[in-house]
Structures are given as structure tokens and as C-alpha cells.
Amino acid sequence: MTLISHKARIVVTVAIFFHGGFSINHLRGAEQTNSRPNFLFVIADDCTFRDIGCYGGQAITPNIDFLAKQGMRFTRCFQQAPMCSPTRHAIYTGIYPVKSGAYPNHTFVKDGTKSVAHYLKPLGYRVHLSGKTHIGPKSSFPFEYSGKKNPDFKAIDQLLTESKRDGIPFCLFACSNEPHGPWNKGDASQYDSSTITLPPYFVDTKETRENMVDYLAEITYFDWQVGELLKLLDKHGIVEDTIVVVVSEQGSSFPFGKWTCYDTGLQSACIVRWPGQVKAGSVTDAMVEYVDIVPTFIDAAGGTPEAAIDGMSFVPVLKGETDTHKRFVFGEMTTRGINKGSSYFGIRSVRSENYKYILNFTPDVTFQNACTTSTIFKSWNKKALAGDNTAAEKISRYENRPAEEFYAIQEDPYEWNNLADDYNYAMQKAKLKRELLRWMKECGDKGQQTELEALEHQGRKRQSKDIKRAEDTGKP
Question: Does the reported pTM lie above 0.85?
């Protein structure tokens, strides 16, 4: 990767995925940009945080690792829902999913909901989204748009050119579709399926290993995209003027990741580079959430976040003024309306530094999604039917959930030992349950009733499809 010039001004770039003449206006523009950093926010799609190189993973990610050496790496960043649409709505609005209305997949926010564009445009910013969207309605997200499923580097190059020429700071969301399935990008020959290490909750099959190397190769492809974005900042001489944020989104679509409220589903990689403000190579254990992105950007841009925003600015964490941020982080998941999902299976969760509490609304319902019909899961079933008890146990744990789950995260990071019925943890469990119920009440979350209303928060085409499925299965 090209070495980044140190002659550039300070720019805040958030990694998800940007010639003007020399004049008095150009000088004024430079002065404006220095006081209002640019933002580059780069986001992956279905990427388990543990698989990225600088998080101890096996994926080859030199550009992301390089960024981590120049910025701050968060070890406890979480999103609100382990699927794309609610996650992206939460990022752009700073509002929790049920409160905004965008809590099922393929969803939209309530009329009148504001997004980052409404907050940064009055502060003089151009707000641009390049790549995957999965948000609505357009009135709530009045961005400049480019690209389809992935960032459009040509359009981004033009944006950076115009921004520098006109002295107007930008907030760019570069939204990748990688490593979302199908895993068909990148060079899988960089990985050996026979020697890679599988997570302890996987069943070791040929199909699992072959898909794992394809998935890792696509993470490396995403890393290439990050590198191209960083090169554009260097090309335009705005590295020092840009805050860059790179996040991994929810976990992969392997079992126990996406669509679950385990850490593998909800926890995210998060790396922030802010030249002159963030200590290079620093690591923080502060707990932050995706809803904190918008208020952090507003704060860094010199504005004041509105009270309607649920998130909290973590600028003090970035500047090294504190090493704590939130005591609890929350998650929600509904299978209602997702592809091949259970007709209704609602999950809510709360996590502290040491413990996780999960509430499953319908433990009598089998947990299903696109993962349970995949070739990977079928290979697990085949092994279980052949008499492999470990495979059978892992399948059962995935499809059959108890009403409550409670885990001691520090000792059990993969959340395998359910302590919900352990008397020794009764007080800790009760405390987290109270916090979860309080949060649900504040969000207007009525539990199972909210789950059954999920289809009302999807587009008409999606509603019709899911209503027909419910009629065919005889289930609501």
C-alpha cells in the first residue's frame, strides 16, 4: 500500500469507503476543512470481527491492520441487530431499531425520522453514500448516492476532487457488499482448507472448510477495497484532514453468527484513525454501539447532538480522555420477514463488560434462517445422522433455544456454557434482565407483540411475500 503523505491536513476518515486550482478560495477551503474534519466511514457486510487479522483472525488484511497501527482499535464495539437493514438504519440515525421502526430486515424508519444527513448538512458538509444502501425512505436519508452493491471509486474520486476544490468537508459512507455470500470474490488459493482453524462452535466438515476459505478470501477482497479508499485520501492530500472509521458489521452467515445475539453476531471490529487526536496503535476496551456513530460525528464536526438521538459521542474515548463509555450494550433480532426464517422468533439481549443475558420470546419455536438450509448446515446434519454426537449437539443448540441464556463472557467468550439456571449467578442475571426490560420499555418494545407487528415495518413486496408464506405454513 502506498505510504500516506504527512503533508496533508487533518481529516477524519471513517472507513466504509474520495484538483482544484490554487487560489484564495482554496486557502479558505483548507482553513474550513481543518476546523471541520472529513469523515470516511467504511463498512463491510457479514464479517465476523474475530476473522480480521488485527483481531487475531486468519484473514489476510494488510490495509485494515495498517490502519489499526495508525489509529485506535476497539475491542468492544457492538451493533444493535445482527442483520443488515436494522444495523444500517441505526448507524445513520443514531436511534435504536424498535424505536425508529426499522427492526426487522428489509425495513424502513418511521416518517419524519432524521439521519446524519440532516445533522451534518447544516454544518456545511456534503453527505455521500457509495455502495450498498438497504435503508428507507429516501426522505429520511437525503444523501448523495453512487454505486450499487459496492463503493464506486470513480464517483468517490470526483467527490474528493470537488470537496477539496470547493473547501467543503465531506462525510462519506463507503458501503461494501463483502464478504456477504455468495463468497465468489478474492483469491481463495491464499488459504489452505486443510490447515485453517475452525471456531469451536463449528462442525468440522469438508463443506465447512471449503466455504470458510472462500469467505476468508472475500474478507481479503474487502481489505483491498479499504486500501483503495485510503489511496484516494493520499492522492488528494487529505489524510491528515480525515477521520477514518472501518467497521465489520454483523457476523458471517455461518451458524452462530449473523441472525443471533451472541457476540459473534453482534460484536463488530471498529478502527478509528484521527491524525493529531487519536494515539497511533492504541487499543480501547470502552464499550460503544453503532448508534454512537452519528453523535460522535456531530461532536467532532463542532455540532451538538439532538436529544432524539439514542447514541452518545465517544470523542472523549478517541482523544484519550477516558477509557470507558457505556455500562451496557443492547441487541435485538427478529426472524419474522427474513429469508427462510422462522415465522416468528424474537430475541433481545443486554451485555455488560463481563456478562451477557439473552431473552428468547418463543423457546418452543425452532430457530431457522437461510443458514439452516445451507450446504454447510446440511453437512452438519449428515454428520449427526451418521452418529456424531458433537455435531448433533451443536445443531440442537442452534435450532433450539431456551427462554433465557446467561453467559460469563470473560471465561466463556463463545457463549457455550449457559448459566441461566445457576444459582451462583442469580444476582448478576437479575440485574441484566432489569436493564434489558428497562431498555425495551424506553424503546416502546412490547416483546412478542412487537415481533408479530414486524411485517408492518417492511416494504409492500416483502410484506406480500411473507404473508403468503405464513398462509402456506399456517403460522403467523
Answer: yes
